[in-house]
Amino acid sequence: MIHPDDLELVASRIRARLAGEETVSSYEIRLLRRDGSAVWVEAHAALVNWDGQAASLSWLNDISCRKAIEAELVHSKEAAEFANRTKTEFLANMSHELRTPLNAVLGFSEMIARGMFGPIADKYVEYANDIHKSGEHLLALVNDVLDLAKLEAGKLELRESDICLHEMVGECLLLLRNRAREGGVDLHAELPPNLPPLRADGRAVKQLLLNFLSNAVKFTQTGGQVSIRADAHPGRGLNLSVSDTGIGMSEADIQVALSPFGQVDSKLARKHQGTGLGLPICKSLMELHGGDLTVTSRPNEGTTLTARFPAERVVRPAARAGA
């Protein structure tokens, strides 16, 4: 017996074949056993000539095992997605609980190191500085994890404004200048004077730029160069890129670097600790802006990271005048 819910499907297929609308068809239906239990079958049907009259010839294959496996896969997928959502929401809600004690550790260790309430032994000053450095590193790791969790949970909202890229790039270069100098890396910008403002979240763009630049400086050896460039095309948007002459990556390494918690395995990369979340966070931030992030690189020849913002985020002169 055909399952009541599938009767109309079977009838419509038979009518279509006898009317000549289809000659061969395959579809899945349920049959009922004598005890009332259902069994899934794959029905194959064809239009044939039976003693001069059109007739429908059908045969069935039992696919109950396959349907059971499919149902289990769907259940497992839904369970995994639920667990992932729960994890992401938990991490996204842990921001205050994790950052508050870390900021206290940083603040008090800095006070001790500076001897704000009286002189202390040099050894204690050294220990306090070590605590402060470790706390800063731990806070950076926690911020990376929480930022990604917020992005995955859809809890990170954009606070948009018109950004002057000349000013923002200048601020980022100032923050990275000492690190580049210590590593013997030449750091400079090449921005056109008429670069239009960008409508975006200033904090997100600054985070993206600092990540691009810090990665470039980190993986560029002494004597190398790091350049930041930008260009805007009418109707095509704005590109913001950072290029270096560092160790570079293979295609496989690029895929690893763009995956959450993925870290490229190289001697230079292993010298620098991190979560492996920098580029995945930047990628998510760009998608939140309606843009994308691309990576072009070759081993031992350097890397270029490019953030592509859509055309609607480029502030036109008319829009600025009207505002």
By helix and strand content, what is the structural category?
alpha+beta
Structural shape: elongated
> What is the C-alpha radius of gyration, as a whole number of Å?
30 Å
- Count of alpha and pi helical runs: 10
Q: What value does the average pLDDT take?
A: 83
Helix content: 40-55%
CATH H-tier superfamily of the largest domain: Histidine kinase-like ATPase, C-terminal domain
CATH class of the largest domain: Alpha Beta
Largest sheet: 5 strands, mixed
Kindly state the number of beta strands: 10
Helix-strand topology string? HEEEHHHEHEEHEEHHHEEH
Low-confidence stretches: 266-270
Total tally of structural domains: 3
Strand order of the largest sheet: 5-7-8-10-9
What portion of residues belong to β-strands? 15-25%
CATH fold naming of the largest domain: Heat Shock Protein 90
What does this entry look like structurally?
The chain is an alpha+beta fold. The chain has three domains: 4-62, Beta-Lactamase (2-Layer Sandwich), CATH 3.30.450.20; 69-153; 160-320, Histidine kinase-like ATPase, C-terminal domain (Heat Shock Protein 90, 2-Layer Sandwich). Helices cover 48% and strands 24% of the residues. The protein has helices at residues 7-18, 64-92, 95-114, 122-153, 165-182, 202-218, 251-257, 267-270, 278-288, 317-322; strands spanning 24-32, 38-50, 53-62, 160-163, 186-190, 198-201, 225-233, 237-244, 292-298, 302-309. A five-stranded mixed beta sheet has the order 5-7-8-10-9, covered by helices on one side. Strands 1-2-3 form a three-stranded antiparallel beta sheet. A two-stranded antiparallel sheet has the order 4-6. A hairpin with a 3-residue loop joins strand 7 (225-233) and strand 8 (237-244). Mean pLDDT is 83; it is low at 266-270.
